[in-house]
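Example 5.3 — Polar amino acid transport system substrate-binding protein
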Amino acid sequence: MSMKGGRVRRRAWMLNLAWLVASTLANPSVAGVEGLCGRPLQLAYSMLPPLYYLEDSSKQGQGIEVDIAAELARRTGCRLDPSYESRIRVWAAFEAEQIDLSLSGVATPERERFGVFLPYLKFRNVLLVRDDTAPRDATAAANPMTDPATTVVVTRGFRYGPKWDAWIRQQEERGLVSYVAEEGDAVRLVAIGRATATIVRDIAWSYYDKRHTGAQRLRRIDVGAAENALSVVLSRKTLSAEQQKALARTLADMKADGTLRRILGRHVGAEQAERLMID
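Solution (predicted structure tokens):
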């Protein structure tokens, strides 16, 4: 090795050391989790606006989850390697020990066998129908769930809640339910008139409303569904107890210092962020 090559390597090492020291001083939480991850953590996104979606022009992923992931990585020093999966594939991947975390999941007893759920956001499910849908009577106009002829398209891997599940089973027995892998596909089928209704999260309404106009214009119907909690999901199978606690503590710190509220506000507005956040 030449002396010049050795000096270059020493200089690079010193610069890296200086960066690490500066980062630790600027962000004390990193010092407490040094060596926490030991490997890149596998993070799964799903297309769930405004949590995660592709920006129309650049096709770059963005949303609440992208910002939360960046902040978790910054504070813990962990590298998060993202991938994109449908919701049903996400849950299968948790079971198969192929992913470490997701930033949007609804807890069920079955899922809690393999995941630790850290709630941070409240939401309610609503129905989406075409704006020109002609109801059979006034009651159905207010709530298509009362019309036995309503066709519904459902996204696989979603758990909507007891009220919704009972209605889906009822319509399924009538042969009026179809299934798709992505929520956006369900919305498109309704927009082009292939189904009467689909179920989406209330926080997604603005996104879909802007993208379906004219003959495909949509209407939102609030049927008074109960609130659900959206959670960060940590794998019980691939993450150690120490890693789970450190990530949970980091999320709690983000809530306490207002970072999480600011992230939500960037995507849904400050007023709605205040209403939706789970402290």
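Remark. Confidence is low (pLDDT under 50) at residues 1-33.
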